[in-house]
Amino acid sequence: MAERKTRIYRSTNQTNYSVINNEVLRRDDLSWKAKGIMCYILSLPNDWEIYLEELQRHATDGKSSFRSGWNELKEKDVIERIGGGIGIIEIDEKNGR
Prior knowledge:
The protein is mainly alpha-helical. It is 34% helix and 8% strand.
């Protein structure tokens, strides 16, 4: 049986898009669920206040599914709570964190 090839068509639209560092997307230790949650968060404005209950409303996953992806991001040190909010940990390629 011949191997099927997949083509990727990229939009040429120059508005309403996000630029996301490939670091989190190319991590082999994160599930697709966790990567999707992270990409959604990174698509929000920088001053956006993150409420977990609000995030859950923007996808079809149930509460436990969302929480497992969210907890994975916390366990892998991709996100952390800072004071009353949530911080995204930026990777320093030289120091590994």
